[in-house]
Write a structure and sequence with these properties.
Strand order of the largest sheet: 2-9-8-5
Structural class: alpha+beta
Distance between the termini: 82 Å
Number of helices: 1
Order of helices and strands: HEEEEEEEEE
Number of strands: 9
CATH class of one domain: Mainly Beta
Strand content: 35-45%
Largest sheet: 4 strands, mixed
CATH topology of one domain: Immunoglobulin-like
């Protein structure tokens, strides 16, 4: 019975493995060739949030993952979705980088002091 089950599973899985390998050969990987961020200059107040937008070229790149980083987390933070929050007055650079780390673009963020009531 075990031998029959082994042969049966091999007969079913072998074509699936071949099909999976065959499909992989047809995948075309398009590497990013650039990235831009908008806006490229942003002024916000303390505790204010604003969204940045990153555009990867070509539009049909296989990976459109963007890695967001701040040059000074004491001035401005950035989420993995490009949402910037002003923390303290000052200037920080928010950088968007392609997943292959070959291309990046920067937004200069100026954080102003929050107005007091």
């Amino acid at each position: 019975m075990k031998r029959f089950l082994s042969i049966f599973l091999a007969a079913i899985l072998a074509p699936l493995a071949f099909f999976a390998c065959e499909q992989d050969e047809n995948i075309v990987v398009k590497q990013p060739t650039g990235i831009s961020v908008s806006p490229d200059i942003l002024t916000i107040s303390q505790h204010e949030v604003s969204a940045l937008k990153a555009d990867i070229t070509p539009k049909d790149a296989t990976s459109n993952l963007v890695i967001w980083e701040t040059s000074d987390k004491d001035v401005a933070t950035v989420s993995k979705f490009g949402i910037v929050e002003g923390i303290n007055p000052g200037t920080a650079n928010i950088t968007a980088t392609t997943s292959n780390r070959k291309f990046s673009a920067t937004c200069t963020v100026t954080v102003l002091s929050a107005e007091t009531p």
